[in-house]
Amino acid sequence: MKSARPAGSGEEALIAEYFRPLATHPGALGLIDDAALLSPPDGYDLVLTKDAVVGGVHFFVDDPPEAIARKSLRVNLSDLAAKGAAPAGFLLALALPETVSPEWLGAFAKALGEDADAYACPLLGGDTVRSPGPLMISITAFGTLPRGTMVHRRGAEVGDHVFVTGTIGDAALGLRLRKEGHSSQAWQLEESAREHLHSRYLVPQPRNALAQAVRTDASAAMDVSDGLAGDLQKLCDASGVAAQIDVASVPLSPAARAVLHADPAAIDTILTGGDDYEILCTVAPERSAEFSRAAGIAGVPVSEIGRMVAGQGTAFIALDGRPLTFARASFSHF
């Protein structure tokens, strides 16, 4: 994490205290140089992804620093998983407002280091700056995979089965609970259900354990960050095919099912709300059983939710046989 200030400056001290202990990769050069060095193994490609999170947009400013740290890294790890790549390291840029305290930074760095260890994705370098605006964390993550094997959004074919990991809609419902206190009463949720939805919004669960199966079996893949309906449309557009989804097959947590029972209109939030960070992929029929078997071995739940069909667009078919329509198919910053 480079600095234009001389050694011994406040920025250098901040880096040394909070972030140098995270830079365990030899290519990080102890965070004392202007750049890091990362060489993929022979016969491997380097996969790069970058996501930024901003206070008041991607998280609440009063969220715990541990949760903000984990979300910052995990949204990037989710992208790597969907491409079939194994994490190799990351660069970190921090724009810190005056209100950030040493205690906040200590908790943030500790959680970030724990995740870096857990996912074998060490800190390689980055930058720290003072911000007059909100807190902003930008991470560039690197992954590796055998040459020529990255799974693209394009590649889905007519007849492919559509799979998603985990459960859909929890994070979006959790965000609604944070923003609309009355929803909790209207939905009549038990405390355990509320906590589940809150935690799914606060801290994503990237599916890196499934990366090899995605790389081996999927014809196309991406992570679900902006909502299942909208992200599936992006995959369809890239592949030049359409999709037909059985809404009843979309996996929901008990908490999401409780919300849907109390408020059937919440299906719109569940399917379009975003922040799931699950993997959406298509698999050829002859590979579907093997993909499901590999997911079971990896300990990642997967659900088959539909088929790729000829044409354009997506159709989410409800229990009554009618296609659902959405006010907005996905989250967009602009």
Report on the architecture of this protein:
By secondary structure, this protein is of the alpha+beta class. It folds into two domains: 137 residues, 60s Ribosomal Protein L30, Chain: A, CATH 3.30.1330; 157 residues, Phosphoribosyl-aminoimidazole Synthetase, Chain A, domain 2 (Alpha-Beta Complex). It is 37% helix and 23% strand. The protein has eleven helices and ten strands. A six-stranded mixed beta sheet has the order 6-8-5-9-7-10, with helices on both faces. The radius of gyration is 21 Å and the shape is globular.
pLDDT < 50 stretches: 2-7
Radius of gyration based on Cα positions: 21 Å
The protein's oligomeric status is single chain
Counting DSSP H or I runs of 4 or more residues, the number of helices is: 11
Based on the coordinates given, report the CATH architecture of the largest domain. Answer: Alpha-Beta Complex
Quickly name the level 1 CATH class of the largest domain: Alpha Beta
Kindly identify the CATH topology of the largest domain: Phosphoribosyl-aminoimidazole Synthetase, Chain A, domain 2
Instruction: Indicate how many domains the architecture comprises.
Output: 2
End-to-end span in angstroms? 30 Å
Structure classification: alpha+beta
Tally of DSSP β-strands: 10
